[in-house]
Request: fold
Amino acid sequence: MFSTHDFERPRFERHADEHLSMTFHETRMSKKTAALAEGHDAVCCFSEDTVDADAIEILADAGVRLIALRSAGFNNVDLRAADRHGIPVVRVPAYSPHAVAEHAMALILCLNRKIHKAHNRVRDLNFSLEGLEGFDLHGKTFGIIGTGKIGEQMARIAHGFGCNVIAFSKEKSEALVKEGWLDYVDFETVIAQADIVSLHVPLTPETRHLIDEQALAKMKTRAMLINTGRGALIDARALIQSLKKGDIGAAGLDVYEEEEGVFREDLSNQVLQDDTLARLLTFPNVLITSHQAFLTREALENIAATTVDNILGYFRSGDLTNQVSADKDLA
Ligand code: NAI
Reply:
């Protein structure tokens, strides 16, 4: 297991028995570290691992027969290379869409009501209200891009706050429309009409920089942009320009284009080398979390249980229920 965190290890160790033994590495998977898999039947990777063609070739040479992802997203794996080497890739398709949608709403509420600022202020005995004004979510237009498992929960939560929910998604859910949770419109309409835009699409060549300079220019002045999908859905440099001009009202980012090697690491004794991230961190109306939207007890239990099932299912009976493959999953 690569990129092992303390919070997940005991949940996996509980499943160890005579059929399943595990070696835990804190190091991230890359072509430099893939050889650590020597002697193992499967590798287990997370979203910060780089499972590219070079790493997969090393895994194949090391005798690895399965790549089991502990994530739903799989943009960090070269599925075509895995196919070429005959190594199936499995994932955890849904461990808790609630966890991610609830975190998106946490970012929205915190940014809107400036809870982060208020918290710091009162600790300094500054009880002033100046600059803490927010807006009612009730009656606002909430735009969702991607209404899969997480987008659906986002729609239900936003609806609960009294928002008018509009969405754009490749696959549409008639049930969500029939039950009155949202209305589908085109991408341009979501961008132009929404007071809050929340991104819930996977990162693919098609969705890379979906929110670029042009899209940002079409958004409402002072609109809020929330990204709990993948960093590269947003062109971070274009976002900075928009924030500097005061066009975008606020941004809540759980993911960042160049997060690899930074997010989920303790760099508190180092100098941040990424100037784009450093600039983003200076805005009072930007809230950044370190790719933690998934991090609930329920999600972690589900990730461990499904990953173990994925691995044992494959080696016992060839079960590949949760497989992702280039043919099926790449546009
Ligand atoms: P899903 O597969 O259930 O839904 C994705 C939706 O996006 C589908 O409705 C699909 O039709 C739509 N879509 C795909 N390509 C599109 C395009 N080009 N234009 C418009 N719509 C498009 O996925 P789920 O479970 O809802 O997760 C969404 C993403 O959230 C994941 O791919 C992952 O990147 C991210 N994620 C982030 C986490 C975090 O901790 N921040 C945790 C889990 C997932």
Observations:
- The two ends are 29 Å apart (CA to CA).
- The chain has 13 helices and eleven strands.
